[in-house]
Amino acid sequence: MRTDIDPRGLIGRKAFDRHGEKIGTVDEVYLDDATGVPEWAAVRTGLFTRDAFVPLEPSELVGDALRVPFDRALIRRAPDLGVGRHLSPEQELLLYHHYGLDLPPEEEPPPDSDFGTLATDPES
Q: I need a surface site. Which of 37, 59, 85, 96 has the fewest CB within 10 A?
């Protein structure tokens, strides 16, 4: 999916599975902590049902809808993690395993250019 889309623009869009069957409506979008890129969407699957998390990376926008490349049954069986709060790394791991997705590469911290130097007072 394009990463330059405003995540607020996804909220309220209809979501469909790989066969074009309606899953529900996007309720919330979760951003990656390190990059700020939209990573997961919580999709309301029915009037009295819970939200299911779907991955945004293999998904795509088709017209005004979000097309998720998984079967509706798999999406509805996604772990129930609750919505409206931060996803922990452990919860994200559960979701990656549920969808059979490769884990994103771990980001290397930038090299510490001051390593080994002594901080000194610039006036001394």
A: 85
Q: How confident is the model at residue 117 (pLDDT cuts 50, 70, 90)?
A: very low
Please name the residue ranges forming H helices in 65-119.
72-76, 89-99
Sort residue 97 into left (φ over 0), alpha (ψ -120 to 50) or beta.
Answer: alpha
Question: CATH code for 7-99?
Answer: 3.90.50.10
What share of the chain in percent tops pLDDT 70? 79
Q: In what order do the strands lie in the sheet with 65-67?
A: 51-55, 38-44, 22-31, 14-16, 65-67, 60-62
- Which residues, listed in sequence order, are joined to residue 25 by a DSSP beta bridge? 14, 44
